[in-house]
Amino acid sequence: MQDTINRDITINASKEHIYDAISNPEHVTKWFPTTIEGDYSVGSQPIFGFGEHGKNQIYVVAARPHEYFAYRWVPGANHYLGDVLAVPNTLVEFKITELADDTCKVTLTESGFSSLPTELMEAAFNQNSGGWDFMLSRLESLFDA
Which SUPFAM superfamilies does the annotation name (predicted)? Predict the structure, then answer.
């Protein structure tokens, strides 16, 4: 069983704009959750809303402007509301690396699948693998206009 999902995409935008798209609730809801309830800062546990697909509480782990943003969530649970740190979870990390002026690599890493309950591991890994491909394409498309 694989423990980690890794994806790299290249976006033609400044690292400031990309970081804003990942860390600013007003902008992150344009490509990932449709809503964010609560504070979206380090140490907080806001709720991501996915419309008819449910809500998931997350725990914001780190925010280093223009370089790194990370949170923990409960994969495979379409309706997890509660203390994310009290149950098995995975770590989602976004790293932004500037390649040239207004061109950056965004690395998405989700790790911790091997610590999930056995009956959830494979399904959660497979669901999120495809899910990140879809969501990252939406992030890229924000900057295509």
Answer: Bet v1-like
